[in-house]
Protein 1
Amino acid sequence: MYIVGTHRSGGTALGTILSSVPGVFYAGELYRFPFPIFDPGDPNRMCSCGLPVLSCPLWSGVRADADRDPQLLSELRAGQRRFEAWRHAPGTLLRSLRRDRALAHHAERMEQFLRIVADRSGATTVVESSYSALRAMLYRQAPLGGGKVRFIHLVRDGRSFFGSELGPAYGTHPGPAWQRIRPAIAARWTAFHSAAIAFCSRGPDTYLRLRFEDVLRHPRETLTRVQEFLGIDLSEAIARIEQHRPFEMEHICSANRARLVGTLTVRPELAAPTKLSRSNSALFWTIGGWLELALGYRPGTERAPSSG
Ligand SMILES: [Zn+2]
């Protein structure tokens, strides 16, 4: 199960909710493997279990299993650089149409790593929140042993994305500085969600679009749709949200920093969009307004910044 869209959309929360179901493991942003988590290795990166990732029993087990095939991690990294970087998107799309062998080999390597994560966690369903629609499409090239990849396109109000991107950048690899220029923030939100629709929305049984705000405000209705889409039982998770009980976060090492708390309680008040300054609001609506409206968001109803 692949969460597609953009960062800062609530993927960590949705992944944590889903992983409360037996047999489902939320693996986070798997594109960060092997670089930089395993290679060169980040001793300061913490897992939600409270241990550094490099000594966490689950992820060090994944590492040991991956290293049994001496080429796996190096080929995975080479394939990511060659096919998953957005500047290579036209070439990757062309290769996918041609059923290119090098691309198929990379997709098989992705599947091999995914399978190790599934085996180590004991899961039959792995949830990945790498967000990139280009990477999402590559899973379609993998055989997946007869199984199939399902996409949840998770959308969060573009105003909240914009407000959150203007805040501090976290992590050791926050991306190039130009991405934080204001027009680039609005353009990225628009482009990534457009790409998610273009690359992933074929077939009603493999694509479901959710607004994160609906998960927060109407958890029962929204998660019932997810339950039907994925064929898993979310009734206990829905009850937990409605009773404001926390979810355990198990071995999440590549996702939002909220993972470091170790538990997650769903807070409906985060659903109101961030209030942008007048000039930022004008900029955002000029670039992304058409998509914001198409996704069902409306002007007004903002909250003051700082609460999320
Ligand atoms: Zn851990």
Note: The radius of gyration is 19 Å.
Protein 2
Amino acid sequence: MRSRPTPKDLELCRYCPSLCQSRCPVNLALADIAWSPCGKMSGVWRLQEGLVKATREATIPLHMCLDCLACREVCDHGVEVPDNLAGARLAADTHYAQTQNPVDTTWNTQKAWETLRSCTPAWRCVDEAAVLLVPGREMLEPEGVDQLKALFQVLDKLSDEVVGVNPDSVLDDGHFSYIHGNLAQAKTAAGKAFKRYGKYKRIVVASPHNLSFVTLHWPQLGYDRSKSVMGVIEYLSSAMDWNHSARFDGRVAWHDPCHLGRHLEQYQLPRDLLKWAGRYAPVELLHNHGNSLCCGGGYPMSTRDPDGAAKVTAMRVAEIDASEADVVVTGCSQCVHTLREANPEKPIKHLVEFLAEVL
Ligand code: SF4
Ligand code: SF4
């Protein structure tokens, strides 16, 4: 987490032959070098140096990123472009992030709690949960609630008696404010959630965006809960009977969500689960593992420039269409929503929906 871009990184990107150009989905989808990592970093540099005025036009490069980390995979210099862009959005002396087309980063936690409570078996709504479930923002949107219900079905099928929810399950952890350039709001939200999470021995987070923010970024704010926080896939897989026989008969492929894959390096466990669940070995999409392609749902671009982000989605949809997969499974509600909306013909499932069917 940076509160401003790093001058050394800005210089490296300006003089680099742009090793990462071919990996940036925004550059590829919009066919514009201005949106390559190098182009965006040059835009930040021009603003920092005062070479251009902080007009709406000049600040667009700060938001043309999906936080997918694909550029990091090929950068020989160790530059983290999304972190630098986030730093530029947050920089105290650069007023452009919040004055230009601001995104409302507040979260209606009361509404989120009502949604969560309505989908949760009554006995799991408890003040003192042994294991607190944190679904994350996207699973509590109208298009995510079926995934939430499927998650409870999976927990029931695994005879889990310890996962519970209460209003702490819908606390804002600061991720959405941070990624949209509101550091003050992010810090306040993270501090409050950090304190409340201290009540629990175990916190299971379903959203990879929130999981990576809490485990990788919170410690940089001085809030470290990495020992008690774990992802829902790890939690469910630890409770499963791996000797159980296969039930799924079709070809299945895993779409690597950027925050589970490149951010948290969780590639193998979901593939092991698909292998366990299916008669056939999982097939791979053209880009996979560290080389995977973002679904276009990454922030801040998907909120700042949804039409541009949809062009990234179209690239991933084309790969899905060209694959042999009968069903594509993923571990992020934002990926599910983005891919389903763009490709209603193809079955796209969250892992919990897939498990609810095969367990
Ligand atoms: S991120 Fe790395 S590879 Fe890409 S332009 Fe910057 S220095 Fe070059
Ligand atoms: S994080 Fe992804 S979208 Fe952002 S600059 Fe890097 S490759 Fe492009």
Note: The chain has three domains: 7-99, 109-237, 243-358.
